[in-house]
Amino acid sequence: MHQQKRQPELVEGNLPVFVFPTELIFYADDQSTHKQVLTLYNPYEFALKFKVLCTTPNKYVVADAAGAVKPQCCVDIVIRHRDVQSCHYGVKDKFRLQVSEQSQRKALGRKEVVALLLPSAKEQQKEEDEKRIKEHLTESLFFEQSFQPENRAVSSGPSFLTVFLGVVCIAALMLPTLGDAGSLVPLYLHLSVNQKLVAAYILGLITVAILRT
């Protein structure tokens, strides 16, 4: 005899619930945002019952607060804000969606969605822009503080090439000038007056560069 496959027993409260969006934002100055839509998805192979609960039900109207979702389907839940007042600005309310099998009462899973009323979309955008600018300035300041000591360490002191050129110029000035008699230095190492003037000029530039570092 073939044994019929049984669906594994689901543990209460452990079933993942898929809802979009996970946050509802209402703007007082924009009536088009006073109505929001929550979409509940059922990716499972069995039907689900759902129920929508709210921490402040007097502030909202929920169309179809309870119903069913067919397997691998979705359902839209319309939520309207009916108490748009300044005293509610910034107050976070919560909606809880509970799902269960149609043949059972116990809740297999639940999901909370935050609802928030703000005075203006423009003000919210302005605050987000200001926050983004502050974060950018903080990152820039951190970058400067982190890398400035290294830059100072790298730039402190003359480079090897500068020191080498300085030594060459000093050696050139110490060599005999063309026409000096009785010098033990080979003739090809005798420099002209113009060559020594160039060496002295370069040595002066190197000295200024070293003093500035």
UniProtKB/TrEMBL annotation:
Gene3D superfamilies with a match to the protein in the record: Immunoglobulins
PROSITE patterns membership: MSP (PS50202)
Residue ranges annotated for the MSP domain, each copy included: 16-143
Highest taxon, organism lineage: Eukaryota
Membrane topology: Multi-pass membrane protein
Pfam families in UniProt: Motile_Sperm (PF00635)
Major localisation: endoplasmic reticulum
Keyword Transmembrane helix set for record: yes
Keyword Nuclease set for record: no
GO cellular component, one term: Golgi membrane
Transmembrane segments: 153-175, 187-211
Subcellular localization(s) per the UniProt record: Endoplasmic reticulum membrane; Golgi apparatus membrane
Role this protein plays: Plays a role in differentiation and/or proliferation of mesenchymal stem cells. Proposed to be involved in epithelial-to-mesenchymal transition (EMT). However, another study suggests that it is not required for EMT or stem cell self-renewal and acts during later stages of differentiation.
Protein name (Swiss-Prot/TrEMBL): Motile sperm domain-containing protein 1
Lineage: Eukaryota, Metazoa, Chordata, Craniata, Vertebrata
